[in-house]
Amino acid sequence: MALLSFLAASSAASAQGLGNSPYSRLGLGDFSPNTGGVRQQGMGGVGLAAPNAVQVNDLNPALIYYINRTTYEVAGTGQVKTLSNGSTSQRTGSGSLGYLSFAVPISRRWAVAASLRPLTTVDYKSTQTGSVAGDPTAVVYNQFSGSGGLTEVALSQGVRLFKGMTVGLTSSYVFGAIDRSTTALLVPAQLQATESLRQAATTDHVQYNDFLFRVAGHYRHSLGKKLNANVAGVYSFETKLDGTRSQQQDEQDANGVSVLATGPVELATVSGTTTLPSSWQAGFSLDNNKNWSLNADVSAQQWSKFRDFGTTGTTAVPLYNTWRVGVGGEIAPDPSAVDGYFKRVAYRAGVGLATLPYRPGGQTLYDRSVSWGFSFPFPTASPLDATTLNLGFTYGQRGNTDKVTFGGVDQTNIKESYLKLNIGVSLNNRWFLKRRIE
Fold it and tell me: CB-side exposure of 119: number of CA atoms within 13 Å?
């Protein structure tokens, strides 16, 4: 079956957690790539080789070492988007918790961090209309919906091996559930007053859990008194998530209420594994160790190796390898200024380009984005405590509205235009101070 037939969304589609994302119907849903927190998002999703002492950079666990004070970070995300297939469009929006992070320096060579963040999100609802063989006057309404996703709880460690060289390890526990349902409602041309509509429904529930590991390295080299070069790399190992899949079949009225006396019929429950493919990331940055940095990152992931309970993709739709590139930077005019607040504000901007793992009609789809952001230090900062408000904005488009041919049938791609807001707060506090007796 054509990919687009899985993704086609009617104008009656309703918004949920992602704001109705048709592409989240495939694989494990919308995958959240390892592009960091609010700081990194404001620079185009880069910062793999950009150390920071006051914000948690779990994009690269090797950079956790540079945290010099106990740091708490919480962020939320919201977005508005427009879906279009060239002839119809739908506007929707959503908001949710972005992530939680906590980092603490343990010694002069070792720091650790813990975080909680979404890994994938499934959120779609679409309707297709069709005809009935032998009865061209009847209409069948097929509705597809899904919800859920995977969450990652991670423990990261950064260790300095020698001057300029740090390594890191992230150990994550991945868990969550995904629900997908399909209903078919037959509406005859001549509906009698005493006749009630019935629809057939199938529900698929999968529970996932297992561990995920990342290793990383970072090297910092001085090119002079006012210039440093940084290189970094992260590798995420392939993992096989344990899963339990259960299915139900039901007969419902037009409102989705079961009309079976015994309720939904339980089908077979099976156990299996889902392969989450490996990925690699590499980054380079320049900074003056004071108030600016320039960054470039590149990454790739082998989605062609994705297997869900033995198949290459949800409903056997294949996925393809992806890559992403991004460049961005930040500058704070004078972080220690006392004569102008906005001199202490950090300003960020960046751009990103990525491919999607879906190829309708063999066509490669892209996600193009431009980002900008700010960090506003609270004026109550002291040598022991500091608080920073972080903002990141991203405007982008993924997919297109080109017409493609699959199996001799002309279809239209779906384009998402989106504006995302990431807002977070970083709190820094110095722990383990030695008491002095005067």
Answer: 23
